[in-house]
Sequence to fold (246 residues):
Amino acid sequence: MELTARVALITGGKRIGAVIARELAACGVDVALGYARSKAEADEASDIVRAAGRRSATFAADLSRPEAASALVQSVVNTFGRLDILINMASVYVRKPFADLTAADWDANINVDLRAAFLCAHAAAPHLRAQGGGRIVNFSDWVARSGRPRYIGYVPYYVAKAGIIALTEALALELAPDNILVNAIAPGPIVAPPGTTEAESRAVEEATPLGRWGGEMEIAKAVLALLASDFVTGETIRVDGGRHLK
Fold:
């Protein structure tokens, strides 16, 4: 896909999402950013896009509500006049022991980590089709891509991220006739979560064959590679420094 003058929607403008937005802008893409609570971070990412000479806007969207997905997509189209790329990054990541999980906890994860990706894709597909095709990039997790859970306390998160892989494959098949390519990225140790201790960070490095955290740019590179390809669809690409090998 030629990226110049395309319009991308990223659901999530913090950390990795902000770096992806910056790199898309450098390639000539106009970028819309959806956010639930991180308005300041989304606005900062939007400012970076505009500084690169591209259009940008931020939109509040609580994707735990089913109607928010279609409203977000329509707002982007109303503002920019088109939509070519959807990057589903909105996610909930909370550790809670299985014995303490409630139906509300389950829904909080599944609704954002899985259902929102489906609903955003469903809303975006007609607009991508109208442009002669497009790209959807979903976000899974290296643990789910490896086919087995490794950490306790993340039952709904793991299920949702495994579901993203299935969703990606199913959408790739459904949307191929419209030249809409659908892939996913499964990040590994990219950036340390807030609150990570120095000892915990070192342990991750030691468990990763490449011996380091990847950094946000490695995910941006993977996104750009998937957008550039015209013949890769239905794939979930691990970006984990070989972490799954140990």
Summary: The CA atoms of residues 82 and 130 lie 9 Å apart. Helices lie at 16-26, 39-51, 66-80, 103-130, 142-145, 155-175, 198-207, 216-228.
